[in-house]
Write a structure and sequence with these properties.
Blueprint lengths: L5 H6 L32 E4 L5 H20 L4 E11 L9 E7 L9
Antiparallel strand pairs: 1-2, 2-3
């Protein structure tokens, strides 16, 4: 999978108040920019995970494993969670479940 361009990384989470920069994904998704006379960048929203089978696994073991790996790699992270992130027109519990890792600005490959 080709890396995201600087513009794609900056606009991926368009609409979230913290204005995070997208860094990586394990999902091979189509990244074509919007085109046409009414092209716009879709606004994203963030929601709590709610009821989902990943919650029990995350709390039981996965979170600790991820933290241990990040620590071993000396990653300078600020937050780590499983959340729902998607286009703002979607209903909250229909948003995709995502692993969210926030890094200090100096850890990102995309710097403004």
């Amino acid at each position: 999978m080709a890396p995201y361009t600087y513009q794609q990384a900056k606009s991926y989470y368009y609409g979230l108040p913290s204005r995070p920069t997208f860094v990586a994904s394990t999902i091979d998704e189509v990244r074509a920019p919007p085109t046409g006379p009414e092209a716009y960048t879709p606004t994203k929203m963030l929601r709590a995970i709610g009821e989902h089978k990943i919650v029990e696994l995350w709390e039981a073991d996965i979170a600790d494993q991820v933290i241990a790996r990040l620590t071993a790699m000396n990653v300078d992270w600020t937050s780590l969670d499983v959340v729902r992130i998607g286009i703002a027109t979607s209903r909250g519990l229909e948003l995709p479940t995502r692993f969210s890792l926030s890094l200090h600005g100096t850890s990102s490959p995309h710097r403004a």
